[in-house]
Amino acid sequence: MTTPDLSPGFLHATRTSYDAMAPAYADFARGELAAKPLERALLSTFAELAAAGGGGLPVADVGCGTGRVTGFLHGLGRGLDVFGIDLSPQMVAVARQEHPGLRFEVGSMLALDLPDASLGGLLAWYSTIHVPDEELPRAFAEFHRVLAPGGYVQLGFQVGDEPLRMTEAWGLEVSLVFHRRQPERIAELLRDAGLEVVSRVWRERETDGPFPERAPQGFVLARRPVVSGACEDGDISTTD
Question: Helix axis angle, 89-98 relative to 68-75, nearest 10°?
Fold first, then answer.
């Protein structure tokens, strides 16, 4: 893949921050999915739908970080050709080291280096949280572009109305903004991008356990409609 364009300022800050955090983040998050059965169930559902509706096309984990969720999807044994894309070269380097049998590339969700309609599924698991509100429609338009008709997109994100700003993590200097959004707003933006919303799940914040959370969590599943033909009035109809 080509080197991503970092012209929106937040991309450079996000990449630099995750480059610095990559080894520490990998150690911290390695066992997270094992402690979160709801997330595993949602990801398993997404994998099943993508396998059934994606026509055998690959599935991209966009904003894959160290590849832990990419590896989980691959390990489900549903025959998914899953690969990861992340803005941070150091995160990608860790992902390649920890999951040597899988493919990981550097890229930006604002300009995916993928052909139109080339994916059977796209996962954005807590990766749109760093995208400012004004850039989110651009990301969702890219998701629509690269998904094949019938392909699914699954989002995970933090729920709220005010962003969290982080300047330090594991003793390292970072510059990250975590945008918290309401599921209804995410669903609206996905529809505006031409995607059909299938389900919305909202969960309260977990304050105990090995991975306490700072905000409630939201999960929205959508898909690109399947074009079934032209109606008599010239409009395009879609299947459910």
Answer: 40
